[in-house]
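The protein record filed here.
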Amino acid sequence: MNYYELSVQVSNFDQWNDILVAYLAELDFESFQEESPNVRAYIQESAYNGASLQALFNQLQAEEQVIQSFQVKLIPQQNWNAQWESQFEPVFIGEDIRVVAPFHQLAPFDGIEIMIEPKMSFGTGHHQTTHLMCETMFEMDFSSKRVLDMGSGTGVLAILAEKRGATDIVAIDIEEWSAENCADNALRNSCTKIQSLHGGLEVIPSQEFDIILANINKNVLTAQMATYAARMNSGAHLLLSGFFVSDTDELKMLASHLNLHFIDQHEREGWAVLIFKK
């Protein structure tokens, strides 16, 4: 599978980089690397729509001269892992969690270590939303819990759930290679409680869950939240991320209509995680 790499030079990087990433995610770009003044974004060749990208850039330029320059190039599949390995640094989430790749040579760690071979999947801990989800999960009780991870990507959240004591975890992603990547990473971390499934809402088991994790984007979350609520048992928790702080009121209102009670909110560099209880 080939990918396109979009490289964008952004003016006023601190103001616009997170906004640009959110817009690109809505165009099906899947993973991002942000280093001022450039944002690099990756999308499957089959999903790339040049007209939609140009329309987005025209919209941004009408608001402010956001885009200084951009370039799109095709990355053959065989080069993808080398691209990741050259830029994937270890991620430390507080003092308790670190996310590493197999090629990292690091000193022993007393906390929870998650080893990820990212391949083409999203979820290495570098992005603010993954970081937020991991921080929030570390403060929760996962002992003997049944967990659903929607949009599992590399499987980092599902793996953390098992390492925190969950005993039954279903991880679901709409991309087949992401589901395979999650399963591979589960084995790499000696996890035996994770079932990795390819699909969407239709493959969620009929059972009820104690904790549901969904780090996707606002549009998908709003479309799927009613299904999440229906799969939660009484007292279950729902963790949502993948959106800006400015989107939280809309999601809180939708959740309240589904009898999901707002518990808490955490923020990181303009991104948010919301916690609800049924």
About this structure: DSSP finds eight helices and 14 strands in the chain.
